[in-house]
Amino acid sequence: MQIIVRDNNVDQALRALKKKLQREGVYREMKLRRHYEKPSEKRAREHAAAVSRARKADRKRAERDS
C-alpha cells in the first residue's frame, strides 16, 4: 500500500491511509486477532453474517419489486 504525501501535508496523507486501511478491513481483522477465537465461534459468527447479508439482500429485492 502506498500513500503519496503532497506539499508536506502529512495530516492529509494520514487521513488517506486510515481510509484505505478501513476500506480493506485491516482494523476489523486486527480487532478479531486480538484474542483467540475458537473454530466453532468463528463458524457461528460467519454463519450469522451470511444470514444477515441474505436477509438484507431479500429486503432490497422486495423493496425493488414492490
TrEMBL record:
Residues 37-48 have a biased composition (Basic and acidic residues). It comes from the Bacteria. Residues 36-66 are annotated as: Disordered. GO terms for cellular component: ribonucleoprotein complex; ribosome. InterPro entries: Ribosomal_bS21, Ribosomal_bS21_CS, Ribosomal_bS21_sf. GO terms for biological process: translation. Keywords: Ribonucleoprotein, Ribosomal protein. The keyword Ribosomal protein applies. NCBIfam families: S21p. HAMAP family: Ribosomal_bS21. Belongs to the bacterial ribosomal protein bS21 family. This is Small ribosomal subunit protein bS21. It comes from Sphingomonas mucosissima. The lineage of its organism: Bacteria, Pseudomonadati, Pseudomonadota, Alphaproteobacteria, Sphingomonadales. The gene is rpsU_2.
